[in-house]
Amino acid sequence: MKQSILSCVVAFLLTACGGKKEEKENVPKTDFSEISQTVSLSVQQRSSAGIEVGLPQYENISNTIALQGMVDAPPQNTVKLSFPLGGYIRSTNLLPGKSVKKGQVLAYIEDMQFIQLQQDYLTAKTNFAFYEKEYERQRYLNSSKASSDKVFQQAKADMDKENILISSLAEKLKLLGIDPNNLTPGNIRKEVPVLSPINGFVSKINISIGKYTSPTDILFELIDPSDLHLSLKVFEKDLPKIAVGEKVYAWSNNNPEKKYAAKVFLINRTFDENRSTEIHCHFDKYAAELVPGMFMNGDVAVQDVKSLVVPEEAVVRWANKHYVFVEKENGDFTMTEVIPGVLNGARQQIESKNITTDTKLVLKNAFSLLMKLMNAEEEG
Q1: Which residue, 313, 318, 303, 319, is CA-closest to 361?
Q2: Where is the signal peptide (predicted)?
Q3: Rounded to whole angstroms, how far apart are CA atoms 373 and 369?
Q4: pLDDT in tens, 45-60
Q5: Residue 67, strand partner residues
Q6: CA atoms within 13 A on the CB side of 239
Q7: Domain residues for 126?
Q8: pLDDT digit string (tens) for 295-324?
Q9: Residue among 103, 267, 101, 260 nearest 194 (CA)
């Protein structure tokens, strides 16, 4: 009998403990993502918390947008220089970064085919003189029927063919930098110069003395800095705020104290996968330390925009979103989400389709209302 009673007591205790454990596990945890959106305050509570209610206002907001990008050169100012014929590099005195002038000799290339091309041109000129005299002789004989038309036509064809050969060889010599009008048997040369087509500086050198280069090889990369510009990345939401002609102040990470003035001259309207695009800015004044590819920061001064603004302390941030408190007719305050814009001093630009200049908002100590909401949720 005693053993039976003891068994019943133990079973009851185990059941009771299990029920308490289950009850404890079922206690709802506080989930701030489901926090109440409305808070009520008495007149005394509003006064002690320093709550002030007022209306938002429209004001002209001016500010800068911080962007990042790099110094860039347009295609027409970048030259990848090759040579029309293959040859061996015999000399050059260039280093990357060195300034060059248009027409300046960058290197000398030599090859047997350069000699052959000059020889062919001079030979063609000599042959042309012979064919020209033969043509004149046959024309005279043909006029008196002393020679046949066929012989006369052949003489003319030989002269024309040689003239065509001279013209084509002359153009080839010009590509090599050799003036055919000044070429004589006494100044045939085995090496020809590689000339700079622009004023600028050398950005890259791909040659070495004695190296053989083919027409497809890039010997030098040159940049004309007269039209260097600043390319900055802009996100879609900021693009409507930027217009052509806006002032830009750029600086590098190496020397953030030195600012470079520029102006927006082109806005790209095509967005990439990140919903960003580029704006292009001309520097007001070229600086030698600016080179293509250099990373830059830029502040763009945006135009004054008439926007809805409130004091900075009227906006609270919670769960990565921004809110204001709207006063209802019964004296309660409802937390309403807004999109923050430019912060100009202590004035915060806001955007919301539910808020106008007639909407009563908490303009001061809005954070105390957020704390009351959170405390009420914890107590509940």
Answers
A1: 313
A2: none
A3: 6
A4: 888 888 889 999 888 7
A5: 298
A6: 17
A7: 112-189
A8: 999 988 776 667 788 998 999 988 888 999
A9: 103
